[in-house]
Design brief:
Helix 1 crosses helix 6 and helix 6 packs across helix 7. The protein has 7 helices and 5 strands; from the N terminus they run βαβαβαβααβαα. It has a single domain, classed as HUPs (Rossmann fold). The chain is of the alpha/beta class. The chain starts with a strand and ends in a 12-residue tail after the last helix. The model has no long low-confidence stretch (mean pLDDT 95).
Length: 228
């Protein structure tokens, strides 16, 4: 059975990606990174999702990126932008962008993948209904695969690690539909940037998630403080 490392944040996209990897028969090692984000709700969700699937290996590691003080996700002094609709999301790079986050996460996943004798890294990145992050685009992943081919032992020995992003070109509605088909535990997931007992309903992540569920024709099982 082929070993695959799955980056698991606890959100809709990464949970759907985990469900997809498992459906394809991979021996999954899940990696969750506590990087100093402004709340722990998504970490709790990641643990709950891993427990739901009975994963034998779920690594939760601490990596304090709070020194990246331009991001609303790592600096409490930067406010999370709130909107009344999803219109305009993705037109520019928002303050919720964490500098080089996917470069860092994929590097950690690559090291783990080599250690575990794996061949594949799965990441729940999306380039359609997304917040405009530059490290969620197809060209980024193509470039990073080149880095892995020349910068890792497995790569130079002719066994390059492959990056799979199965929802990269799907709309949020298509992601929700795929998650439903795979019976992913969406009730355990968390997407809101602000944390709290209930999702805020007005940050970019909440709005894109709500848009996806509405267009897919399903009700979101997560509770919200308010809707758009």
């Amino acid at each position: 059975m082929t070993v695959a490392v799955v980056l698991l944040s606890g959100g809709l996209d990464s949970t759907t990606t985990l469900a997809y990897a498992l459906s394809k028969g991979y021996d999954v090692v899940a990696l969750t990174v506590s990087y100093g984000q402004r709340h722990s709700r998504e970490l709790e969700s990641a643990k709950a999702v891993a427990k739901h699937y009975g994963l034998k290996r779920h690594i939760v590691m601490d990596l304090d990126l709070s020194f990246l003080r331009t991001s609303a996700l790592t600096c409490p002094d930067v406010e999370v932008p709130l909107r009344d609709s999803a219109e305009g999301i993705g037109d520019d790079i928002p303050v919720t962008y964490v500098p080089a986050r996917n470069i860092i996460m994929l590097s950690l996943a690559a090291g783990l993948c080599e250690t575990e004798g794996g061949e594949v890294i799965f990441i729940g990145a999306n380039a359609i209904d997304y917040s405009g992050y530059p490290d969620c685009r197809p060209e980024f992943f193509e470039a990073f695969e080149k880095v892995l081919r020349v910068g890792t032992k497995s790569g130079v020995e002719g066994r390059p690690i492959e990056i799979k992003a199965p929802i990269l070109r799907k709309s949020k509605a298509e992601i929700v539909k795929l998650a439903k088909e795979l019976d992913a535990p969406l009730h355990l997931t968390w997407s809101c940037y602000k944390g709290g007992k209930r999702a805020c309903g007005h940050c970019d992540s909440c709005l894109l998630r709500l848009k996806g569920f509405e267009e897919a024709g399903y009700s979101d099982p997560v509770e919200y403080e308010a809707g758009p």
